[in-house]
Amino acid sequence: MTDYLKGLNEAQYEAVTTLQGPLMVLAGAGSGKTRVLTMRIAHLITNLVDPFHILALTFTNKAAKEMKERIAKVVGESEARSLWMGTFHSVFARILRSEAHYLGFPSNFTIYDSQDSLNVIKKVIKELNIDSDLYKPKKVQARISSYKNNLITVKAYFNNPELIEADERTNMKHIGLIYQKYVEACYKNGAMDFDDLLLKTNELLTRFPEVLAKYQDRFRYILVDEYQDTNHSQYLIVKALASKFENICVVGDDAQSIYSFRGANIYNILNFKKDYPDAKTVSLEQNYRSTQNIVNAANVVISKNVQQFKKNVFSDNEEGEKIKVYRALSDADEANFVAGNIWELHHSQQRKFSDFSILYRTNSQTRAFEDALRKKNIPYRVYGGLSFYQRKEVKDLIGYLRLLVNENDSEALFRVINYPARGIGETTQNKLIVFADSQNISVSQVLDNLGFYAPQLGLNNGVLTKLSDFWSMIKAFQVLLKTENVYNIAMEVAKRSGLIKFLKDDQTPEGISRVENVQELLNSMQGFIEEQQQLEDGNPSLSNFLENIALSADTQKDKEDDGTDKVSLMTIHLSKGLEFPIVHLVGLEENLFPSFMSSSTREELEEERRLFYVALTRAEKQVYFTYAVSRFQWGKITDAEPSRFLSEVDTQFIEFINPAIESRFVNHSGLKSNIFDDAPSEPRFFKKQDPKKKLSRAENPEPQSLPKNLKPISTAKIINPSGQSSEDIEVG
Ligand code: ATP
Ligand code: MG
C-alpha cells in the first residue's frame, strides 16, 4: 500500500479510494474529512488523473494553501501546481475574468468588498432621497445579498409579486428600486461585489452552454470541503459543473453549519442524495483531534438540537482533563485570567504560544484580550476584524491603483480625486456626477474630454485646470502599467500623488503607523511578485494583485501572519476547520453567546448551539470556558448572566476554577450540580428576563431546576459599579 494510505482507517480508506462517481462524506468534527479530501486528491493524481482536471473548493484561502502543500508532499510540487484549489469566490472570480465579455463586463472588472458595496448602497439611498434611518444601509445590503444568493436578479424581483408584497409589508417598499440602482451603479463602474462572483458565474453557466461545456470538460473531478456551508448559488454552480462526469465528492458536517445568516443551506446535504441517487455515502465516526472528554462534552451539547442527523462520534485518544470554567468579575478580569493562564501553561507545560487560541462570538471582544496579552508581553495575532487591506490609508493607495486598472470604477475615482486635497471639492464632484449622468456617460469619459465638455460643466478655469492636472497624472500612471511591476507602479503613485508626503506630515504615533502601513502594503507587493514568479501560471500583474487582496479582505489573516509563534485570536466563525491544543472559549454569557440577535427562534438558537459545538471541537487537549458577571458593553457596565450553553455541558465534563463558586454547588454528598441551574437567592446573577429577548429560557425548556437535595451554600457578592440593570441597555 502506498504510504499516504497507510494512516487511514477503514472508512477513510474507502472514501479516499473511491475515485469515480458521486460521494458524500458526512461526519462529525475532527473525524478526518479534510484529511480524506486531501488524500483523495493525492490519490487521484497518483492514479494518473491530470491535476488540470481537478477542482477543489475550500472555505478559506488558508485551507486551500495548506491542502496544496500536503498534496505536494505526496505527488510533488510540479503536479500540485496545476490543481485548481481555492474558495468559491477566488476560483469563480478567475473564471469570470476570462469570460467577462460574455456578460458585458470588462475583464479587468473591480471586485468590491463589502465596505465598497456598502458605500455604493449609501450613495444610491442618498441619490434616491430615501430616508437612511428607515433603510439602514447594512440592512439593505444584507437584503440585496440574500436576493443575489438565491439567484433573484432585479428582473426576477420585479416579476415576483410575493417578494414585492413582503417588502411592502415590512415597510421596505423601495428595496427593489435601491437594488436596481445598485446593480446599475456596479455595472457602470465595471465592478462586481462578492455575491456577484457567484451570481454571475451561475448566469454564465446557464446562459452560455458552450462555456458550461468548456468547464465541465475541464473539471472532471470536483471536491468540496465544508459542504454544509454552501449557499444556494454555490450549490447550483457545483451541480452544473459536475453534471457531465458526476465525479463529485463533498464532505461536511451538518452540526457545523454556521453560516445560514449568509444564506448557507443545510439542505444542500439532503439534496445531494436526491440529485445523485446512486451516490455513495461514507460516515466517519472516530474523532482523532480531541480527548474523549472534549468529544463527549461536545456530543452532549449538540444532541440538544432538534434539527440534525444523528451521528456517532467517539474518540480513542486519552480521556484528558476536564473543561475548566472560570467565572470572572468583569471583562477585564476575564482577559487577565486568560492571559495569565496562557503565560502559566507556556512555562509549566513548555507550550508554544501558537498552541493557544482565544475564541469569541464577536469581534468587539478582542480589545480586552489584546490589552491583557500585551501587558504580559505575550505575542498574539488577531484574525479577521478590520483587515489590513481595509485600513483607510491602505485603501486610499489601493484606490489609485484600482482607478489605473479600471477607469470606470467611480468608487475609486471619487476616493482619490481630492485626496490628498487638491482643490477638487464636493461641489465640483457633484457637478461631474450629475453631468455624466445627464449625458449617460461615465465620469472618466467626461475627464477624457474635459476641453469639449468644459462649457457645459459650469466650472471655473481654476477648477478645470485642477481636474485636468489630476487626470493627466492618472494617465501618466497608466503608462507605467505597460513597463513597470506592481511595486514600482505603487511606489510612483504613492510619491507623485502626494500621498506619502501628506501622511508623513502627520508625526503623531497614528500618523507614523499609517506611513508604516503604506510601507507594509508596498512590501506585500514585493512578496506577491515573488510568489507569482514561483507559480506555473503565475500572474504578477496589478489587476491580479488587486483581485487577490479584494478576495482575501473579508476573512483574511492579518499581514502579520508570518508563521511566528503567536497566540491566535479569532471569532468562532473563522475558526472553522482549524485545530489548537488549547482553546479558551470566552464570553460565555447570555445575549453575547447566544447572541442577543440570534436567540428569538429555535432555528437561530440551534445555529448558535452549532457554533458552540464548532468552538469546543477545535480543541485537542484542553478547553477553558470563561464568562464575566459584568461587562462593559455599549458604553456601559452591564450585568451578565452565564450562557445557557454552559448549563448544557454535563457537569461530569467540567470543573470550576474559582473555589467560591465551586463550593456553592457542592451538596452534602459531595456531588456537584449544574451551577447554572436557577438559583433564586442570587438576584443579580439570574436577573429578570431581558424584555428584548423574545424567547426566554422557560419557553425553550432545558434542564433547569436545582436538584431537590441541593442548596446553594454561599453566594459571591457581585458588584455592579454603575448600578445599572440590563433593562437600561440600549442596543444598537
Ligand atoms: P472539522 O470538522 O473540524 O473540519 P475534519 O473532519 O475535517 O474536522 P481533519 O481536520 O481532517 O478533520 O482531522 C482532524 C485531525 O485528526 C487532524 O489533525 C488530522 O491529521 C487527524 N487525523 C485524521 N484522520 C486520522 C487518522 N486516520 N489517523 C491519525 N490522525 C488522523
Ligand atoms: Mg475539516
TrEMBL record:
Belongs to the helicase family. UvrD subfamily. It catalyses: ATP + H2O = ADP + phosphate + H(+); Couples ATP hydrolysis with the unwinding of duplex DNA by translocating in the 3'-5' direction. The keyword NADP does not apply. InterPro entries: DExx_box_DNA_helicase_dom_sf, DNA_helicase_UvrD-like_C, DNA_helicase_UvrD/REP, P-loop_NTPase, UvrD-like_ATP-bd. The keyword Isomerase applies. Keywords: ATP-binding, DNA-binding, Helicase, Hydrolase, Isomerase, Nucleotide-binding. Its EC number is 5.6.2.4. GO terms for cellular component: cytosol; DNA helicase complex. Residues 292-577 form the UvrD-like helicase C-terminal domain. ATP binds at residues 27-34. It holds the Pfam family UvrD-helicase. Residues 6-291 form the UvrD-like helicase ATP-binding domain. Residues 684-700 have a biased composition (Basic and acidic residues). This is DNA 3'-5' helicase. GO terms for molecular function: 3'-5' DNA helicase activity; ATP binding; ATP hydrolysis activity; DNA binding. GO terms for biological process: recombinational repair. Residues 680-709 are annotated as: Disordered.
